[in-house]
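Dear Dr. L.,

I hope this message finds you well. Following up on our conversation about the binding site, I have prepared a predicted three-dimensional model of the protein together with A2H. For your records, I am including the exact sequence and ligand specification that went into the calculation, followed by the structure tokens. Please feel free to forward this to your student if that is useful.
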Amino acid sequence: EGIGPQEYTALKLQVKEWSPKVADIVKGKIEDDAKVYFVPATLRPETMYGQTNCFVGPKIKYGLFKLKEKEYIVVTKRAAWNMAFQGHFFSSESFPKSQDELPLVFEAPGSDFIGTLIHAPLSFHTEGVYILPMEGVSAAKGTGVVTSVPSDSPDDYATLMDLQKKADFYGIKKEWADKEIFPLIETPTYGNLTAPTLVKQLKINSPKDVNQLAQAKELAYSEGFYKGKMIVGEYKGQPVQEVKDKIRQSLYASGDAFPFAD
Ligand code: A2H
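The resulting structure of the complex is given below.
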């Protein structure tokens, strides 16, 4: 971590229903039957069964970029530019020579997208999940979009609990943040809900407890990776270390994800 490019799994979360703000902006700008995806970058593809929502930074600027015929993505401009270089998106004849040549439809702050309903591949929440705000999202990392797995990510859990507690303050509907958190991975030290357990043990009360959260993140990540065992999905019963790459590859093969380096 930290040295050299990071290999992320870029997941494609299809928009099912826009927030009212973006519905107005989008009208007439893209085909009615076009597909649009939010594209979070994750290091833990084996946890995608537990997605309960997807985070954007409310103040971060996102673009809707044309990927190919009738297909668009929502990411930061920086990420779209990286993706262009990695050859995931744009045909060679239209390869952009600068960020200004990216096929941008419109830009809007993350706050405009909040409340958008999306389909998250592999998630047990097949009814769809919502775009929600997270202050801690960095515009300078990944795609600026972070899918949320509160069972295994302390940051995601702490943020989701805060959103539930203060739904009015954040201007969201409580039910958008109120999805069941399913156990996915069993670990010897933290049981089957690693992130909620660590958040309690380290007495983390809000996403502002950044030092404890950094510690919880380290502990959750190494415990999950080295000692975790899947308790759901196709590889139920098998160690995380052995199945992580298989799950990633099958997401690539189904077209639900692609590799993304940052
Ligand atoms: B991970 P690294 Cl279950 N800003 O995915 C803030 N966080 C970001 C981000 C951004 N721009 N882009 C990606 N991330 C998050 C799952 C997960 C993640 C679990 C547990 C731990 C975990 C579900 N959220 O990450 O700093 C994404 O969240 C802890 C390492 O680039 C991504 O993987 O090394 C991870 O941080 C990438 O972190």
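In brief: The pocket of A2H is lined by residues 1, 6, 41-44, 47, 136-138, 141-142, 144, 146-149, 152-153, 156, 217, 221 (CB under 6 Å).

With kind regards,
A. P.
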